[in-house]
Amino acid sequence: MTSPEYAHHFSIHNLPYGVASSPCHPTPQCATRLDNTIIFLADLQEANFFSSIPSLPANIFANPTLNPFASLPKETHADVRRALQSTIQQNALPPQSTAEISTVTMHLPISIPSFTDFSCSLTHNQNAGRIILNHETLPPAFFHFPIGYTGRASTIVVSGSPVTRPIGHIYDTLSPPEGNEKKKKVIFAPCRALDYELELGVVVGRPLSPGTRLKATDAEEYIFGLVVLNDWSARDIQGLEMIPLGPLNGKNFATTISPWIVTMDALRPFKVEGPQPRVSLPEHMQDPGKFNYDITVMEALGGEERKGETVVGRSNAKKMFWSVRQMCAHLA
Q: Which active-site residues does the annotation give?
């Protein structure tokens, strides 16, 4: 997502938010991207490009994270987006406010106090049933609510950060079983089954007061945007530790997110209807109409600058059984 190869994803209709630094902007600060140009938003605010937005606090884009901006009302986000688009269309960006993508360093865009990993794909859960139980058995709760577990926020890093192969307790599949009962030997060793999972991350910008319930139909007011997420997984460590309390070190050693947060306003044209519920849902989980997004996603393995890459998977976010709004409602 920092490569110039992806310029076509960053049109005036996108304008995502991130945190960047450059030789002329050595302190990490809020930015957006147009094609292969990074626009430092603090410079625009200092030059009064957002002066018509009274709800926008002074110097908010000079922060090293997007959290203060993400927590503002949706109306303020929309006003900033319109002001940006107008400035770009008028070709009025101050020269000192921009930098080429090849000259900048991207940083973790938000401070993340906690996160929850949901499993919302029907196909993914069916495939897991085939692998573990040899048939398409779904978790008992799957059609009633989005199932998930609490992750480790401290191991979330921005895309491009090095990831260390984890070490943990695994079954030694390279040695014969031990004893009369032919039990598998447990060893402490580097992971032999490092895996990836392509996911979308939901960035909650506006906090919800403790004890406050949330309806899925109202949840978008609290969602700042989406990121691309790689849920790194150590399958052999995970397989041994899963019973009875679920994953820990097999899933919590690293999670990578894209440096850019795509806003819900930018995604609005891609809204589509999702799957119909299979059971009667409580009121707060009901989310009729267009609640999913037609977003094509792809995984590829390859060298630098995408040379010799091999596509290993394709999918679409519209296939998710539970919407991002339903996830937030259930979590609340």
A: 124
Mind listing the pLDDT tens digit for each residue in 135-180? 788 999 999 999 999 999 999 999 999 999 999 999 998 888 777 6
Binding residues: 117, 197, 199, 231, 238, 251, 255
For residue 203, the domain's CATH number is 3.90.850.10
308: region left, alpha or beta (phi > 0 left; psi from -120 to 50 alpha): left
What pLDDT, in 10s, does the model give residues 246-296? 889 999 999 999 999 999 999 999 999 999 999 999 999 999 989 999 999
Residue 58's CATH number = 2.30.30.230
Token reading at 124: 């993914």
Binding site members for Ca(2+): 117, 197, 199, 231
Q: Are residues 38 and 140 in the same domain?
A: no
Q: CB of 147 within 8 A of CB of 68?
A: no
Which of 107, 131, 149 is at the close of a domain? Answer: 107
Binding residues for substrate: 238
More confident residue, 308 or 186: 186
> Could you give the number of structural domains in the chain?
2
Domain with 61 in it: 4-107
Among 48, 75, 107, identify where a domain stops: 107
Are 78 and 265 in contact by the 8 Å Cβ rule? The answer is yes
254: CB partners within 8 A, 6+ apart: 155, 157, 163, 164, 166, 232
Identity of residue 332? A
